[in-house]
Amino acid sequence: MSRHLQRAILSMIITLSVMVGPSMGTPAKEAPWLPEAAAYRLTLFLGNLAPVPWEKVEKAWKEPYRGSDYSAGAFDWLGRESTLDLDAIKSALATEDRHALFASATRLIALRIDEELDVALTANDPSTSGQAVARAKEIYRAFADHIKAADPASARSLGRAWLELMNATGSARVLGAGGVEQNTEVMLAARNEISSYLAANYLVADLTPRATLTALPELIARTGQPVTLPAALPPGTDLFDQDPLPLLVLNFEEQGIDEADLPLIAYGDMLFDSANIFGGPAKELGIACSTCHNRSDINQRFFIPGASHQPGAVDVDGAFFNPMFNDRRDDPIDIPSLRGLRFTGPYGRDGRFGSIRNFTRNVIVNEFAGEEPTPLILDALVAYMTEFDFLPNSMVTGEGQLTDAAPEAARRGETLFNQPFDGMGDQSCASCHTPSGNFLDRKSHDIGSVAPAYDGSLAGAMDTPTLLGTVYTAPYFHDGSLPTLASVVEWFNDTKGLGLTEAELSDLTAYLETVGAADEPYETFDAANTPFRLAFAELTTFASTLDTLLPKRDAKHILILTDTVATDLAADAGTMANLSARPEIYALANKLTEVGTAVRGEDWASALTNWNQFKEDATALEERAY
User: Fold this and answer.
1) Which of 41, 69, 290, 556 has the greatest number of CB atoms lying within 10 Å of its CB?
2) How far apart are CA 619 and CA 149, in angstroms?
3) Which residues 6+ apart lie within 8 Å of 576 measured at CB?
4) For the segment 136-173, what is each residue's pLDDT rounded down to a tens digit?
5) Residue 181 in 3-state DSSP?
6) What's 218's DSSP letter?
7) How far is the CA of 427 from the CAs of 104, 142, 423, in angstroms?
8) Residue 314: enclosing H or E segment and its boundaries?
9) Model confidence over 419-471: pLDDT tens digits?
10) Phi-psi category of 598—alpha, beta or left, where left has phi over 0 and alpha has psi -120 to 50?
């Protein structure tokens, strides 16, 4: 092998050091993964984190992935469905040999595909043969998007082979779908093409473990270039919006001001929903601020294996999103609500940022590997986020006092809330959660909820969180370790020696639940207010900022907008109830794309023409598209 080729292969191995797969602009529910394919993809993802979370990798093989349709883990499943030897994988897990694990797991998947294809070829009836081919193709899914990204020509050829193979089993004819009769000769030819590719690329004797995402040395030999593959998340990931969707309360909106008349805020609203301000995997996967903070609150569904220890949490300084910012500690935090943001500083769970602006820059650049934001981007995001208001609660006044609508138990609990306790240094709950200050003191305190990182560590102080809206933000504490407000009260009672009776614990919990309640916590949808109508109104409002940006010929910020809104508008068309209007929404999205194309070509006259046409078409569609 030439030195040039050696260097090219090494470059590719380094390029592939993070798990890859298809990019997505908006989350879409994926088909279930077979246990062995799921375990493999989880191994690729977890095994490329630094440090490798070996307990989680081993769990990926022993237990079903989160949300799996199968009750068995990969080892148990393979013990029933396969004759292949699993000793190499088990040995690699026991010795925590990352390279050996990658290599043995890759070979296992390739051999499992062959094993199922053998069953298909030797089956006595088309139904059994078709089922075996279907299983083989589901296992091949573990490789498919890697091959498509790195070797498109082979991916197309293999795709045809899979279609020919399934059709040649005759199983479609058995099911009454008009398929051809079983054709062993065609089956054998298609199977040989698939198996030969696997043998050449996934079963080679000198398979380099770090290249197991897809070896493809012959591709590098042809191009002389490393292959960059898109990022993906492993099975068990959930990036869908929380359901029911939290109600968004905006200060200007409550005062009757139209967001379209506030271009800076409208642009910030768009940026909050845009993955284009981030970099790396977050941008490729379509993750935006709103992915974690649904409508200023918390996405309690958000979960990424290896980055989340439970739904609604994420390790923002781990290895996946920005390796440069990796602190090499497995320390996911509970996603905080952003409601009332202008009142809740300092920012960050430990209060390390004094300003929203600095905190926002850190999220973009450090947490999610984005480029340095422009002043306009930061101005717009801050302008938008500082409009987030708390949920209205008719049981609590603006000064934090209970109203006549509050239950009697809460009134008794209010007395306890304001009572000093010896175990809390003669302070009360209200000392930190000041009722007249939106139930916080804008300080950080070490209450003993954080385990010391080392002997003598003083880094356990956490920012005091507001109690407003907390009924809807479970679980609690920085790491989401307490599931209910009742468990929070019990924690303080136990750790601070408060000596509360069962009745007092109940009353204090009732107080917290009253303060943390809301009159209308969730968005209400009906025939008139549909999810698509809400999205359409938001996206066209975002686009309205072009009235300000186009005259300035601000190409950079225009393109962030057109790339974001055109993509989201087309994606949201899929949620429309009025299917006949869907093509018009796609055409509208394309018109916005044409604005971006014209701006890229510095054809400002064409950009303006397309923008004016967009506004005209959007107005015409508004009343009949739903």
Assistant:
1) 41
2) 40
3) 532, 582, 585, 625, 626
4) 999 999 999 888 888 899 999 999 999 999 999 876 54
5) coil
6) H
7) 59, 57, 8
8) strand 313-314
9) 999 999 999 999 999 999 999 999 999 999 999 889 888 889 999 999 999 99
10) alpha
The residue behind tokens 């066209």 is 540
Q: Token digits for 238?
A: 């959930």
Complete DSSP assignment for 231-276: B---TT-B-PPPSSPBPP-BHHHHTT--GGG-HHHHHHHHHHT-GG
CA 18 to chain centre: 16
Q: How many CB atoms lie within 10 A of CB 256?
A: 6
Q: Which helix (H) or strand (E) holds 100?
A: helix 98-122
Report the candidate in 45, 71, 73 with the shortest Cα–Cα distance to residue 59. Answer: 73
100-103-108 Cα angle (round to 5): 120
Q: CA-to-CA distance for 331 and 458, rounded, in angstroms? A: 17
The secondary structure of 19-41, three-state, reads CECCCCCCCCCCCCCCHHHHHHH
Q: Where are the beta strands (DSSP E) in 69-147?
A: none
How long is the chain?
626
If DSSP codes are grouped into helix, strand and coil, which group holds residue 120? helix
Segments of the chain scoring below 50 in pLDDT: 1-25, 173-177, 208-224
Contact 536, 528 (CB under 8 A): no
